[in-house]
Write a structure and sequence with these properties.
289 residues; alpha/beta; Diaminopimelate Epimerase, Chain A, domain 1; 6-stranded mixed sheet; 44% helix; 12% strand; elongated
């Protein structure tokens, strides 16, 4: 009897081991590196969109790739997206290596930004290179994630990536004007923000103008037409015997204007940089969604 129980326990353990080994094998296959060798090529090896996690439909991929190519060529800055089921090592290192070893720095003098999603642990990473290290400051990356985070959480990946391209376009435009988005710099207005502001102003102005008009209309309901002007004449006429202007008082109030240091919790602004395995300098950040 004991021998039978031992055999059963051994069989269960063996089955569990095989299942774990199979799962580990699947994850290892999913987390394969997506570059041919650990040398930086002289030309870009991949499209600006690689959806290995299959989060987008074919039509969405085509639309997004067109947006990425258009914005990249407009600003001479590679704007790329990578999705994977899983990855090996820290996600920040993987994103940096994917950018370097696939030659994304070759097009525009190392200038570029990569946004990466890894679905196994629901991780994201941003890797910046070249001038983009200073275009997309630490605060600029926080702003970017604020704009797309809700879409990622809802599983609306196309809208998240499309918004990513639009935000990159706005931040690159700010940088081209000499003011990258950073602590103390006003966030860029979107077209929807401007439309809402105009619509709100028109609505508010209409309401403010309408209230006194309606009030005057209400007051005039009891007014009747007079046949002559006798009702408006003072008995005996109007006589002014004396007029005088008298200065009563002068009040002057002073209030100090607070200094706007925009420290925002002590942040000094700028970009935090690090060196990838290829020896290239990168900015970036990472987290979970």
């Amino acid at each position: 009897m004991n021998n039978i129980n031992t055999q059963r326990h051994f069989a269960r353990a063996l089955i569990l081991f095989i299942i774990c080994l199979f799962a580990f094998s699947l994850r290892a296959q999913a987390s394969e590196v997506l570059w041919d060798e650990y040398t930086v090529p002289s030309s870009r090896q991949k499209e600006r969109l690689l959806d290995n996690a299959d989060l987008l439909t074919d039509s969405e991929e085509a639309l997004l790739l067109d947006q990425l190519d258009t914005a990249s060529n407009k600003w001479n800055c590679n704007i790329a997206v990578l999705t994977v089921d899983d990855h090996s090592g820290p996600i920040q290192d993987y994103a940096d290596d994917y950018f370097d070893y696939n030659g994304f720095g070759a097009d525009f003098n190392d200038n570029g930004i990569l946004f990466m999603l890894s679905m196994y642990d629901r991780e994201w990473a941003i890797s910046t290179s070249g001038r983009a290290q200073y275009t997309f400051t630490d605060y600029g990356q926080e702003y970017l994630m604020d704009q797309i985070g809700e879409y990622l959480s809802d599983g609306d990946y196309y809208e998240a990536f499309s918004t990513y391209v639009k935000v990159c376009d706005r931040l690159l435009e700010m940088d081209s004007q000499g003011t990258p988005l950073d602590y103390g710099v006003k966030e860029p207005k979107t077209s929807s923000d401007i439309f809402a502001l105009i619509l709100g102003s028109l609505f508010g102005g209409s309401v403010v103008a309408l209230i006194p008009v309606l009030k005057m209309k209400s007051d005039l309901k009891t007014v009747k037409m007079a046949t002559n002007a006798s009702n408006y004449q003072e008995s005996g006429g109007l006589r002014l015997s004396r007029s005088e202007d008298r200065f009563v008082r002068k009040t002057l109030t002073k209030a100090p204007i607070p200094k706007n240091d925009d420290s925002r919790g002590g942040h000094s602004g700028g970009s935090t940089l690090h060196t990838s395995s290829s020896g290239h300098s990168h900015g970036g950040s990472h987290g979970h969604f």
